[in-house]
Design goal:
single chain; 5 strands; five-stranded antiparallel β-sheet; 6 helices; chromophore; Beta-Lactamase; PAS domain-containing protein
């Protein structure tokens, strides 16, 4: 009878291995978000960004964040870039967002994005992008110019997420 009792106690105190896997993934995701925030805050502090309308801390949890310099070279991409595109951050740094575009990306949409960048105004577009393996996906981009506290343009930021079709 005692043996049954000890088995019962051990089952109550055990956690299925699968639960640990989920816990580990969650902790890794939190670590990645924290590291992403640290990197983007370093850029922000270096260039004294006016962050009041950017809401980076909240949006970085749900969306991919891409920051480019004034020449549109990528200087930061959050960890989610790999899940969405197949590219690691190191592979996109120094490249332009054209790395994600291909033959079926709408030229009109790209022209409208270029015009918004030239006029230094925010934009929102959903375009067809390409993953590293060549597969396409619909990408909703919410882009904006980033100004420093003196009002000088320093970067462009894009919050991106894959639009899943029904």
């Amino acid at each position: 009878m005692k043996k049954a009792n000890s088995d019962e106690v051990s089952h109550r105190n055990s956690v299925p291995i699968l639960a640990w896997d989920f816990h580990y993934e969650y902790l890794n995701e939190l670590k990645n978000i924290f590291n992403d925030l640290k990197k983007v805050n370093k850029i922000s502090n270096q260039f004294t960004w006016d962050q009041k309308n950017l809401d980076i801390e909240q949006r970085i949890k749900e969306e991919v964040v891409v920051v480019t310099d004034l020449n549109l070279k990528i200087v930061f991409a959050s960890n989610g870039i790999r899940r969405m595109t197949g590219y690691k951050e190191e592979e996109v740094l120094g490249k332009t967002p054209k790395i994600f575009q291909g033959p079926t990306t709408c030229k009109t949409d790209l022209e409208e994005i270029r015009e918004a960048i030239k006029l230094q105004i925010p934009f929102e577009k959903t375009i067809q992008n390409y993953r590293k393996d060549g597969r396409t996906y619909q990408c909703k981009i919410n882009g904006a110019p980033v100004f420093n506290l003196k009002g000088k343009l320093t970067h462009f930021i894009a919050f991106e997420k894959e639009v899943l079709s029904a």
